Amino acid sequence: MHTHSAHATKIEDRLRLSGLRPTRQRIALASLIFAQGDRHLSAEKLHEEAVGADVPVSLATVYNTLHQFTEAGLLRIVAVEGSKTYFDTNTSDHQHFFIEGENAVIDIPNGPKGQPVVSNLPEPPEGMEIVNVDIIVRLRRKAIGQ
After folding, report:
1. Sheet hosting strand 84-88, strand order edge to edge
2. pLDDT tens-digit series, residues 42-55
3. Which family does it belong to (predicted)?
4. What is the DSSP code (8-state) at residue 83?
């Protein structure tokens, strides 16, 4: 294993503060996930990155770790189709564009005061409150000549 760097210590602290034990695999996967800033990734993409970085981990472990990170509040799930789930490192309230045919997820910028672009939400039923609003706007590239 590499020498213990300040980056690894920061990752360990982040895991501990989220209630997760900083195992070698969690530290390695968290380093891959969070090193590039805010982004959207699938379990398959993270597994591919892990293999490329010589991190010995199975796809099942990647799935389990991503779900543990989500439960701990480190990631947010973006479900775009029944079988396709992305994990978002930006856990703030925001919406997404999904580009069909490219399997790409892009953040929709928030309004000028930092608020989500959604407005005119219906009033929730009595005794209920809106916790989160997930919106995915599906896009596709225009055909040439349109």
Report:
1. 40-41, 84-88, 76-81
2. 999 999 999 999 99
3. Belongs to the Fur family.
4. T
Residue 136 is classified by DSSP as E
CB-CB neighbours of 28 under 10 Å: 21
Of 93, 59, 58, give the one whose Cα is nearest residue 78: 93
Structure tokens that stand for 86 in this block:
């992305």
pLDDT in tens, 81-115: 777 899 999 998 888 888 888 888 988 887 777 66
- Which pair of tokens denotes residue 43? 């379990």
Amino acid making up residue 33: I
- DSSP assignment of 16-36, as one string? HHTT----HHHHHHHHHHHTT
Residue 80 CA to residue 96 CA, distance in Å, equals: 9
| CA–CA dist 124, 131 (Å, integer) | 10
Q: Fill in the DSSP letter of residue 93.
A: S
Using CA atoms, how far apart are residues 33 and 39, in angstroms rounded to an integer? 8
- pLDDT confidence band for 22 (50 / 70 / 90): very high
Do residues 48 and 90 make contact, with C-beta atoms less than 8 angstroms apart? no
Give the β-pairing of 136-139 and 95-99.
parallel
